[in-house]
DNA sequence: AATACGGGGTT
DNA sequence: AACCCAGTATT
């Protein structure tokens, strides 16, 4: 019988977490499942530093499930604008309404019920479960995958379904008997602060003594990186239709990119803006001028945007569909917009500012 | 099993 | 410029 040479990793991580983990992030030191839930959703594929200010503003505006559930989707998206992965916000909102209707306004405490809420998968359900309720469910996020890929010397890319299955099994097997929340936090904090992708701090790692990658001198190469394909490129034209101090925005469909956000009309590069405005919106326009060109990079493609400004002297008599809306420039910039659209409108606002200053100057001269 | 879904940070 | 990040839902 071989004696166990080292303490279980859960034991070491719990001790490490208590001494060296992070303890004062805005969503820590609470067992309020709502506060924890919001943080976990924001932290999906998004780093702590980027989340903090969004989280504080969001919690101030939507302090509890009821206030979130009763808000408009528009309002919720506005507080998410700039964070990305907008389905997270739509699902959060939808889930709050489900909790009001199906759980009497109380966050469910059953693991399956938690995971059944939209936007909450196995790992997020496990994180909420352990932090808020002390349930024993394994988490498996990017940090855990990296720590395990190194500790267990897993050579293949952790995103492979076969490897992922193994990782979940390991995650289950490593669960402690108690202190679930401290363990889960320790695993993630260790991954985020010591077992980092580059320049990991193996010198002070509580798992170094029996880490497979450390023993094999393979830490730098693991975890294996995702096999990449060339990212496609797309070029579009965006129209900034201006009438007096207002611009025309279009609400995007629920599903697909930038779902539910306000954007600008998109055209192929070959199409003529004025002709399109006349045909699609019965809107005469003139004075087309290039406004700005920019490139927006997504995970899965690169989007080149060429923004054109058009002046609409007279509004058509017929009311437009509700997905079209004239907003003042100031109003538009504060709406729920994707980042590149906000940038385009800021360029316009800057021009507007220069023009109105020149105008004021003229008035002063007269 | 593969793909869609953002934006920001690091190197 | 490549790569990654407290993943989930859809196809």
From TrEMBL:
Reaction(s) catalysed (UniProt annotation): Hydrolyzes free adenine bases from 7,8-dihydro-8-oxoguanine:adenine mismatched double-stranded DNA, leaving an apurinic site
Upper taxonomic lineage: Bacteria, Pseudomonadati, Pseudomonadota, Betaproteobacteria, Nitrosomonadales
One Pfam family here: EndIII_4Fe-2S
EC nos: 3.2.2.31
Matches recorded under Gene3D superfamilies: Helix-hairpin-Helix base-excision DNA repair enzymes (C-terminal), Hypothetical protein, domain 2, Nucleoside Triphosphate Pyrophosphohydrolase
Listed InterPro entries: A/G_AdeGlyc_MutY, DNA_glycosylase, Endonuclease-III-like_CS2, Endonuclease3_FeS-loop_motif, Endouclease-III_FeS-bd_BS, HhH-GPD_domain, HhH_base_excis_C, MIG/MutY
Coiled-coil ranges from the UniProt annotation: none
Hydrolase recorded as keyword: yes
Domain of life: Bacteria
Record domain HhH-GPD: where: 42-193
Protein name: Adenine DNA glycosylase
Cofactor(s) it depends on: [4Fe-4S] cluster
Gene Ontology process terms (BP): base-excision repair; mismatch repair
Function comment: Adenine glycosylase active on G-A mispairs. MutY also corrects error-prone DNA synthesis past GO lesions which are due to the oxidatively damaged form of guanine: 7,8-dihydro-8-oxoguanine (8-oxo-dGTP).
Protein family membership: Belongs to the Nth/MutY family.
GO molecular function: 4 iron, 4 sulfur cluster binding; 8-oxo-7,8-dihydroguanine DNA N-glycosylase activity; adenine/guanine mispair binding; metal ion binding; oxidized purine DNA binding; purine-specific mismatch base pair DNA N-glycosylase activity
Alphabetical keyword list: 4Fe-4S, DNA damage, DNA repair, Glycosidase, Hydrolase, Iron, Iron-sulfur, Metal-binding
Cofactor note: Binds 1 [4Fe-4S] cluster.
């Amino acid at each position: 019988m071989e004696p166990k040479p080292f303490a279980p990793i859960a034991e070491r991580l719990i001790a490490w977490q208590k001494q060296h983990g992070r303890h004062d992030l805005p969503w820590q030191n609470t067992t309020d499942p709502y506060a924890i839930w919001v943080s976990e959703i924001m932290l999906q594929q998004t780093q702590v530093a980027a989340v903090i200010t969004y989280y504080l503003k969001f919690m101030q505006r939507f302090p509890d499930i009821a206030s979130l559930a009763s808000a408009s989707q528009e309002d919720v998206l506005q507080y998410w604008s700039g964070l990305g992965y907008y389905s997270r916000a739509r699902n959060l909102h939808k889930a709050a309404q489900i909790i009001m209707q199906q759980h009497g306004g109380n966050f469910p405490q059953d693991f399956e019920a938690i995971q059944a809420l939209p936007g909450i998968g196995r790992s997020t359900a496990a994180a909420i479960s352990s932090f808020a309720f002390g349930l024993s469910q394994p988490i498996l996020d990017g940090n855990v995958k990296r720590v395990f890929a190194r500790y267990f010397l897993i050579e293949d890319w952790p995103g492979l379904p076969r490897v992922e299955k193994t990782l979940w099994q390991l995650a289950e097997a490593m669960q402690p008997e108690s202190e679930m929340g401290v363990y889960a936090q320790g695993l993630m904090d260790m991954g985020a602060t010591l077992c980092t992708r580059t320049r990991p701090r193996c010198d002070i790692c509580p798992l170094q003594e029996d880490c497979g990658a450390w023993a094999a001198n393979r830490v730098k190469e693991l975890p294996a990186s995702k096999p990449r394909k060339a990212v496609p490129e797309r070029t579009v034209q965006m129209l900034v239709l201006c009438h007096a101090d207002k611009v025309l925005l279009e609400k995007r469909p629920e599903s697909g990119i930038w779902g539910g956000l306000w954007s600008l009309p998109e055209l192929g590069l070959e199409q003529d803006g004025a002709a399109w405005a006349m045909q699609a919106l019965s809107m005469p326009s003139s004075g087309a001028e290039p406004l700005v060109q920019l490139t927006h990079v997504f995970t899965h493609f690169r989007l080149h945007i060429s923004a054109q400004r058009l002046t609409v002297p007279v509004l058509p008599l017929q009311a437009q569909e509700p997905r079209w809306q004239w907003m003042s420039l100031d109003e538009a910039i504060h709406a729920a917009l994707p980042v590149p659209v906000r940038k385009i409108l800021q360029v316009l606002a800057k021009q507007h500012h220069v023009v109105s200053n020149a105008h004021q100057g003229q008035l002063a001269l007269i």
